[in-house]
Amino acid sequence: MEVIKAPRGTRDVLGDESWKWTHVLDVCRRTADDFGYSEVLLPIFEHTELFSRGIGDTTDVVEKEMYTFTDRGNRSITLRPELTASMVRSYLEHDMRRLPQPVKLWSAGPMFRYERPQKGRYRQFWQIDFEILGVPSPMADLETIDTSMEIYRRLGLSNLQVLINSVGCPKCRPVYREALKSFIASSPGGVRGLCETCRDRFDRNPLRILDCKIPECKDLTRSAPAMIDSLCDECREHFDGVGRGLDRIGADVRLDNRLVRGLDYYTKTAYEILAGELGSQNAVCGGGRYDNLAEAIGGPHVPGVGFASGIERIVITLEGQGVYPGKAPETDVCIVTASDDAIMEACALAHELRMSGLAVGSDYTGRGMKAQMKQAASAGARFVCILGGDEIASGVVGVKNMKNGEQVSVPRSGTAAKIALWREEMVE
């Protein structure tokens, strides 16, 4: 019988990597605290309508990528493909409008999209998500971008660049849609020169054509009109305000007229953060403003802005830049037994040392001392406690410093204190 493996597009994050994720999440949590965000834990699945109405029926996410099923109550349920719609749903459901505005939330967890797996992109993937809800000010956009930049700075990434654009609003976006469609239709090859997906997008969601990675579509739209030239006065003022703020904090900024993001709820600001080398996928973060999302899912008008970032992508970029992402867990002590009779006593000693705050490994397989010492060295243990019949009878423990080879016998009750003293001397 063939062994069952993980489904395509998923993977196991094992112990030699999971600690890196923990480090990234710890940095996110500390940054969130410093910027005044509250952590929320949200459901992994939601009613499908939340995403179809919030993200948009004509987006690739809703049309092609969602994991949707009918539950036993005959309800259409979807594994969340992103967190922003869930954040806004939670804000509305728990009446956070009554709180002082803005409300600043963050969360992290697994998302699900059925797409072609590739490096840094899986069908189950983890994202961090930060949102500022309740204020329309461009300074909220600025703080969102600064928050994402600060996370990457604290992680040690360098050469950070902000790609930014404006996708307008319901007032000026239709004007640009028609200008873009007219440009494409009158170009050599016209609509027929687009890929099949973009031909389908032409009438329903033409801005998404700018985001197509197919060379023919990129060439056809290379000199397309820029959204920035079609902005209404309100969107222009908002965009200029964000730009001035980014200049004040010294961000490296580049206008990208093709940056439209893939979700319908975006209004005004759209941005990405570039860092490191990851082939064509060198964006570690994407986000922007979504002032009409709350209304799309049945709520009142609630302006919002936020960003999401994939943990897999962050770790790959850190390693690509040669940044050591945190510190692997260390073993302070390994306990080596000289006889089978000492195994029970070794387990009790391990418990005592752990209670004192030490990270302890204990071998209870009955292997020989040589094999146990080799395992202790492989685990990177800084100290070894040796227990045999003689030590147990005398009420002592042999303690060996693995760095300099020094070995002493100490009373059982003083083992933790001796190890703590040696550990402090190592730090000094």
Keywords:
16 strands; BirA Bifunctional Protein, domain 2; 428 residues; Rossmann fold; alpha+beta; elongated; 15 helices; five-stranded mixed beta sheet; 2 domains
Q: What would you say this structure looks like, in words?
A:
The protein has 428 residues and is α+β, with helices and mostly antiparallel strands. The chain has two domains: 15-172 and 231-320, Bira Bifunctional Protein, Domain 2 (BirA Bifunctional Protein, domain 2); 333-421, Rossmann fold (3-Layer(aba) Sandwich), CATH 3.40.50. It is 38% helix and 21% strand. The protein has an eight-stranded mixed β-sheet, sandwiched between helices. It has a five-stranded mixed β-sheet with strand order 13-12-14-15-16, sandwiched between helices. α1 crosses α11 and α5 packs parallel to α9. The protein is elongated and about 90 Å long. The N and C termini lie far apart (57 Å).
* CATH superfamily heading of the largest domain: Bira Bifunctional Protein, Domain 2
Sum up the overall morphology in one term.
elongated
Unreliable stretches, pLDDT < 50, 5 or more residues? none
Structural class: alpha+beta
CATH fold-type name of the largest domain? BirA Bifunctional Protein, domain 2
What is the alpha-carbon Rg in Å?
A: 28 Å
| Domain tally | 2
CATH architecture of the largest domain: 2-Layer Sandwich
Major sheet strand order:
1-5-6-11-10-9-7-8
List how many beta strands DSSP finds.
Answer: 16
DSSP helical segment count: 15
Helix content: 25-40%
